[in-house]
Write a structure and sequence with these properties.
By secondary structure, the protein is of the alpha/beta class. The chain has a single domain (about 15-285), classed as Alpha/Beta hydrolase fold, catalytic domain (Rossmann fold, 3-Layer(aba) Sandwich). About 25% of the residues lie in helices and about 20% in strands.
Length: about 290
């Protein structure tokens, strides 16, 4: 399950940063903008995974700012990380993946109206993208470890761990607390209860996001830009076959599949989250290739 225990590193002297604040409706959101010292050539929205704080992506964002001469926005979903606390929150996955992510994209587009806009989405950050409005001005999408998954899709023994989270540990914790104690459960960080409950529906009910009545229907044509789907061959949370399924939700896009094998890059186990950790930076050029 998600964990973001690798410490974030500070940007190098080649990168400048700025704390930013914007809102999704009445929900205040906070983020961090990474920029090269020269004028940026593109703007990149970096939307993270469920339970992973935006600060975890700081080293990757700083690297992107230099490598791609980009203005890179990392940000936290409402009532999570720098954007607030999950205790007693009514935030849902729809709020996070649709309303908050759209607000972050609009904020970045407004800040840099003349630059090509990329969206890099990790897990939830890529999974919910096809259901957002106003996707026509995106120049490129890279979705990493993002795709619909059910318990039966996980390999053993992780399948047992996932089943216990959805049907035993998570509901039991929710019956006695006003949030999901993610840290105690090894999920990385505490989550709002409604986020957990909607996430559970996506991973245990047939139809996933398109069958969820609390999710909007995708606009058409939706994404029409080049889309790279990136899978890790040792990811037990979202196996590669499930990452490729994301293409079904973006029929007008130009989709390419990239399978990363950590051993090809001299690395050990990477899995669902750690591809963005500094120790695994050997993967980063392949992620954005």
């Amino acid at each position: 399950m998600p964990t973001d225990t690798d410490p974030a590193t500070e940007p190098t002297s080649e990168t400048v940063t700025e704390t930013v604040a914007f809102s999704a409706g009445a929900a205040p959101l906070k983020g961090r903008l990474f920029m090269p010292r020269n004028d940026p050539k593109r703007a990149i929205l970096l939307s993270g995974a469920t339970g992973v704080r935006a600060g975890f992506y700081a080293p990757f964002a700083a690297w992107l700012a230099q490598e791609k001469q980009a203005a890179v926005l990392t940000w936290d979903y409402r009532d999570f990380g720098a954007s607030g606390q999950p205790y007693g929150s009514k935030a849902t996955m729809t709020d996070w993946g649709i309303h908050d992510a759209t607000a972050a994209r609009i904020h970045l587009r407004t800040r840099f109206p003349g630059l090509p806009l990329w969206v890099i989405g990790h897990s939830l950050g890529g999974l919910a993208l096809p259901f957002q409005p106003g996707l026509q001005d995106i120049a490129r999408v890279i979705a990493i470890a993002a795709g619909p998954v059910r318990v039966r899709d996980h390999p053993w023994p992780f399948r047992a761990q996932a089943w216990a989270l959805w049907h035993l540990v998570g509901p039991l914790a929710g019956a006695f607390m006003d949030h999901l104690p993610g840290r105690r459960l090894g999920l990385g960080n505490d989550l709002p209860l409604p986020v957990f409950r909607q996430w559970k529906r996506w991973c245990t009910k047939a139809g996933s996001l398109p069958a969820d009545p609390d999710m909007p229907a995708p606009e058409r044509p939706g994404l029409t830009c080049p889309v790279t789907l990136v899978a890790l061959d040792d990811d037990v949370m979202i196996p590669p076959a499930n990452v490729w399924k994301l293409a079904d939700w973006m029929p007008a896009a130009q989709v390419r599949q990239t399978l990363l094998r950590p051993t090809d890059h001299g690395l050990g186990t990477v899995g669902h989250i750690a591809g963005f950790a500094p120790r695994n930076r050997a993967l980063w050029p392949a992620i954005i290739a």
